[in-house]
Fold this protein.
Amino acid sequence: MSMIYKFAGMALILGLTACSGSTPGPGFQFVEATIEDVQAAIRSGEMSCADIVEGYLRRIEAYDRSSGMNAIIFANPNAVAKAEILDQRIAAGDEMGPLFCAPVLLKDNFDTSDMPTSGGSIALKDSIPPDDAFMVRKLREADAIIIAKTNMAEWAFSPRQTVSSSYGTTANAYALDRVPAGSSGGTASGTAASFGVIGMGSDTGNSIRGPSSHLALFGIRSTIGLTSRDGVIPLSFDRDIAGPMVRTVTDGAKVFNVVAGYDPADPYTEAGKDKLESDYTSFLDANALQGKRIGVLRALVDTDDADPAVTEVFKQALVDLRNAGAEIVDPFSVPNFAEHLEGDYFCARFRYDMHEYLRSLGDGAPIKDVIEVKASGQYSPYIGGGLDYFAGNPADVHPKDLDPSCPDFFEHEGRQAFLADVVTSMDDAGIDAMVYPSWTNPPAHLDKPDEEYKGDNSQLVAPATGLPAVSVPMGYTYGNLPAGLQILGRPWSEGLLISLAYAYEQATHHRRPPAGFPPIDDSQSLSRDTTKPVYPHENEPIGSVRQAYSGELYPDIQANTFRNIHRLFPTRRVAAGDKPYPLPVSEKQLNNFRFESRGTQYDLYDFLSLNRVSGIVVLKDGEIAFEKYLLGNSRETKWMSMSVVKSMTATLVGLAIKDGHISGIDDPLTKYLPQFADTAYDGVSVRNLLQMASGVDWNETYTDPSSDRRAMLMAQISQQPGSILTLMGNLDRAAEPGERWNYSTGETQVVGALVAAATGMNVADYLSEKLWQPFGMESDASWWLDAAHGLEIGGSGLSATLRDYARFGLYMANNGVIDGEPTLPDGWIETATSAKVVAGEKVDYGYMWWPLDMGAYAAIGIFGQFIYVHPDSNIVVAMWGAQPKPVGKDVVDEYAFFNALVRELE
C-alpha cells in the first residue's frame, strides 16, 4: 500500500508540473518562505493556496531524489485537493485557521489517517493508522496542509544518522556527504532545503534539537507534559516529545501555539493543563535579552572531544548575547552533575510502549509485538543490538510494575532529583536560562556516523529532567556546516526560551539556505522528462567541494563527486540543440602503444590506470578513434570541467567581439565593468585579463586555506550574489598591467562578468546560443553559479558529457567555423592558443589556453581534465581525470602521452 502511495504522490507531482501555473510571483519566493510570506501572497492574490502547495511539490520533485538527499519518502496525494478547498473557503470569505496553507513536512512517526506511518521500519511500511496523531489533527484544524512525510532513523533508535529500513539514508542538505543527525533528519534536511514551511519532528533525547542544529533550524523540545505524544510512534514514552522544526523562531512560536496543550489521550499533559501561555508569539521581542542573566554550562562546552571550530563559534555566540544586553554568568554549574549523567535514569520501555501503540492501530496492526521484527529480519543491521536490548522486558507489563521498577517521569526519584538540582542551581545563580552548544562537533560524515559521533549535548539535560530547551542557529564551521546554540530553561518557560531565541536570532541572522537547493528556474521544465533516462549517478554519495579542492576525498567518493557537481551549488543550464554533431566511429582504431615519460616506458593501459583517467575520447579527422569510460562512468555521465572551462569562458570573449558586443581586445575592462574603477583592475585591458597579465596580486594555491583561491571558494560557498567580484575588487596591485604573468582563477570570474555585461545575457545562455546549440552538442550541460540566479563561475564548475567536451575541441580544430560561417575574429584561435611575451619574457599561455609541443594546445583542469587539440593532424582528445590531489601529484606525463598518441595515429 505505501509504495502505491509513494508512486501516486510522485505521479501527482508530475501531472501538476505538466499543467500547473504554480510559478512564483514577483514578490513570493519558495526558498526560505515563512508562514507569513505564504499567507501574504495568498491574501494579495499573488498566489493561490494550490499554487503554493504545487510549488513545494515541484521543489521536492526537482531536488530531493536527484540530489541524493532523500529527505522525502512520499507526497500526500490529497495535498492539492485540500489546498483547492482552502482556496474556495478563502474566496467565500470564511475565517481561516492561523496556519492556513502552510505546507507541513511530517516525520514518519506521526500517525496520519490518509498516509502510511512506518516509524522508519519496513515492518510498518504498509500501516495506515485509523486516525491522526493529536498534533496532526491540530495542524489540520489550523488549516495547515500536510504535503509530505519525511524519512527518519529506524524506530528513532539513532541520534547519529537518519537511516530507515523502509526508505534508506537521508543526507544533510548543507553537505550531502554529512549526516543530518537522527532521528528527525528527513524533516530537518527537507525543511532546510525549503521543501515545505513547517517541519515536525520528535525528540526522545536529541531528535528535534540535534537535527535542527545540524541544519540551521529553530527546534523546540517542550517541558514534558505541555505537549501531547498521542499518535506518535514511541521510543520511550516517559521521555518522548514532539514539536516543530522551522527556519525562523517566529514560525516556531506560531506552530507551538497550535500543537501545544492538554490532550486527554496523553496522561502526562494533565501536569501542564494550566501551564499553557495564551499566545507564544507575544514573546517575540527583539530586546528580550536585555537584562537577562544567562548561565554558561561549561561542563557541556569544554569537553575533551569538542571541535575547536565549534568552540570558536560558541565563543562568538556569548559575545553576541552580551552585545544584545544579556549578562553572561560564566561558568555556571549544576551540583551532582556528573553523578546525574551517570545515573540509571533511562527506562528500557520501548517494547511496552510499542505494544500500546500497536494496540491503538486495532485489528489492522501489521504486528502485535515490535520484537517480531527481529525474528523476521525486517530491520537495518545497525538497530539489531537495540532490539535485543529492549527484548529483555515483556511487552505487556508497564515498567513501573517490573522488578526492579522503572516508574514514570513524575514518580522517578532520580530524574526528579536531577530536575531539582538544575532548578535550584539556576535559582541560586539567579539566571534566567543556561546555554551550551547543541553539538560540540560538526555533522559526521555520512560513511562514518559511529566513528565521528561526538558532542551530542542534547541527550544530557533536558530528556532526563523533563525541562524545555530550544536550539537556534549559531553559525557555521568549515564554511557550510551549521552549528546550534541550545538554550535550556525552567519548567514551563517556553515563552521565555522563545523570546531569548528570537532576540538572539534577530541580533545575528545566522540562518542561510543550503546552496544546492536554489529557486527553480522558471525557464526550465520543473518535471522529470520521463521519456529520457534518469541520470545514472543521481543517488550516489558525494563529498564537498572543499574536500575536493583539499584532496581529501576517497577515490570512490571523488569520482562520485566529480560526476555529480551539479548537486554542490546552484547551476544554470547550457541548453543543447536538437541536432547533435555526428561523431562516427573510425575504421582505424587506436591500439595499445608504448611511450617514454621521464625515462620510464609506459603503455596505454599504464597511463589510464596510473593517471586515474575516468574517460577519454580521441577524435581523428572528426571520427572516434578511441573511446573509453572508467571509474563507473558511461557515455551519459557528465563530469566536472575544473579549469577546462576557463578556456571556454575566454573563447566567449572572442565570440562577443565577433558579434560586436565588445569593440576590441584592448578596450579597458572598466568600459564594461565600471564597478572596477578605482580598484587594482583600473587600467587593465581585456587583453591583459585574458593573458592573466593584469598585474593584480593573487595566490592560486588550492591547498592553502589562506590563499586567494580558497577565499574565492569560501565566497562561492557563501552564495552571496557578487561576493567573488567583491573579493576581486579588493585585491592589491602587484605590477603594472601587462608587466607580470600570474595564474589566477579569479580572473576568469571577471572574464565571465565581462561577457555577461557586454552581451546582456547570462554566460550559460550565451554559450548555448552561440556554440552549444549551433555546433550540435548532444546533451545539456550545467554551470555553477555564485548564488541562486547569479553569475556563472568562470573558472570551474561546468558539467558536460565527454563527447561534448570533444566537440568543443573539434570546434576549435575547425577554426571556430559553424555551418561554413566563422564565429570568431580572424586569427583569434591562432592568437588565443600561442605563447605570449610578458615583460620581455616568453610565457607559455595564450588567452587562457595552454600552447604545447608540436603546434598543439590544450584546455587543462587541475585533476587531469583535458581538451587537447593538434591542428596539423586534426586530432582532438577529450579526457577526464580523478587524480588524487590538486597539487604535487606524481602521474605519467600527459604531454608525453599526447605526443606519442599523435605519432601513433599519424
Observations:
- The longest helix spans residues 49-67.
- Residues 1-25, 522-532 have pLDDT under 50 and may be disordered.
